[in-house]
Give the backbone structure.
Amino acid sequence: MREFHTTSLADQVFDKLENDIITGVYPKGEILTELKLVEQLGVSRTPIREALRRLEQERLIAESGKGSVVLGITEEDLEDIMNIREHIEGLASYYAAVNMTPDGLKELEHIMDLQEFYFSKHDLEHMRQIDDKFHDLICQLSKRTVINDTLVPLHRKTQRYRKKSMENDQRLVNMIAEHRNIFNAIAAGDAALAESLTAQHIRNAKLNMLERLKNNG
Amino acid sequence: MREFHTTSLADQVFDKLENDIITGVYPKGEILTELKLVEQLGVSRTPIREALRRLEQERLIAESGKGSVVLGITEEDLEDIMNIREHIEGLASYYAAVNMTPDGLKELEHIMDLQEFYFSKHDLEHMRQIDDKFHDLICQLSKRTVINDTLVPLHRKTQRYRKKSMENDQRLVNMIAEHRNIFNAIAAGDAALAESLTAQHIRNAKLNMLERLKNNG
DNA sequence: ATGCGTATAATTGTATACATTAATCCAAAA
DNA sequence: TTTTGGATTAATGTATACAATTATACGCAT
C-alpha cells in the first residue's frame, strides 16, 4: 500500500517562508511577527512558530525583541561560505562518484539538460534554481550525511546573491561547462577528478561573486 | 537597567536533552516520546516539541514513526566530521587571532588553566568538556558567524566519542601541548601560525580517534 | 500457522486560551 | 527640552484541548 504522507503545515510554512526570504519577497531587515503570519497564511501560531525556529537555526532570521528580523549576509559571510565550500564541496563530488547509482546519474543528467534549456531561454531565475539543485543533488547523492548537512545550509544562504553573479554571460557559459565536466567525471566514476574539478569550480564561482560584490558596492 | 533574560523552558529542555544525549544518558537507539518527556521534565509539550525539533535539526535525533530515536554516528560520519574540521577549523583560529580582544584572550587562557587542572586530577569527563569549550570558544572569538555555525554542530556530534579518545594518556599530553601552542600563536597575533597549528592539531586528533575506533571495533 | 482487516490505543499535529514578558506612548516633573 | 514612570499595547512563552494520524493488537478467515 502506498503511503500518503501529506506534508505538515509546519513544513509548508517553512518552505514558503524560506523561499520568500531567498527570493527577496521578505527583504533583509523585514520584521516577521507570528500574528501577522497567522493572518497572512491562515494557519495557527503553532506551525508558524516551528517554521520560524527552523529559519532561525539556519540563520535566515533572528529574534529582535519585536518579532523576527530577516537577516542579510555580509561580504565576510559570503567570503567564508565560499571558502568553506571550496574546501568541502570537492568531498561531496568525490563520494558522489564513489556511491553513484544509475538512478542518481539519471537525475543528475536531467539537471544538466535543464540547465542548458534555461540558458537558451535566458531564464536567470530558473538558472539560479538549477545551479543550486545541481550542487544540492551532488551532496545528496554522496550519501554522506555530515557533508550534506554542512553544505546545504550554505547553499541556501548564497541563493539570494546568486542571481547577481549570473548577469555575467561569460561566467554562465563557463559554469555550464564546468558542471558538465564534473558530471562527466562522476559518471565515469573518477572520484579524484570530480573532486579537483569541483574545488576549482567553486574557486571560480567565488572569484566571480566577490568581484561582482565589489563592483556593485 | 540590567536585563534579566531568564532562559525559556524550551532552551532549558534543549540544553538538558542535548547534554543527556551527549553524555549517554539517552544512548543511541533510545526512543523519546513527547508524553514521556512531559512526565519526566514536568513541562508541557510545547517547549518539549521545540527542543526536539532543534535536536532533530542537529541530527542528534530523528523521527521514527513512533517517537524520536536517538541517533549515533557512524565511522563514516566521524571520518567526515574530522575531515571537514581539518579543513575549516584552521580558519577559525586564523580569524580568532585577527579579531582577538583582551577579554577574549583572558577567557581562552582560563580554559588553558582549567585543562591542566583537570588533567592533574585525571578528570576525563571535565577534560572532554574543556576540550570542547576550547574549540567552541575559538570559533566564537573568530567573530565569523558562518564558520562558527558550521563547526559548532560538528563539535557537538563528536563529544560522545571524545572520552574514548582520551583514555590514551600520551594523546592527552600532546593535546594539551598543542592547545597551548595554538593559544600562544593566537595571543601573539600570528594568524597564519595559529591556522596551521590548528589544522595539524585536528589531523592528530583525527588519527587518534580513527585508530581507537578501529581497535575498539 | 499465516495473512488480512478492523478496532483500539498511543502519538503526533494543530488550534487556542491564558500567562508572561517586552515595547510604546504619553503625561508629568526636572 | 529631556527624562522618567507607569499605563497600555503588542508580542512571545506556555499549557492544554481537540483532531488526525499512525502503530499495535486481536480476531477471523484461509
Observations:
- Residues 1-5 of chain A have pLDDT under 50 and may be disordered.
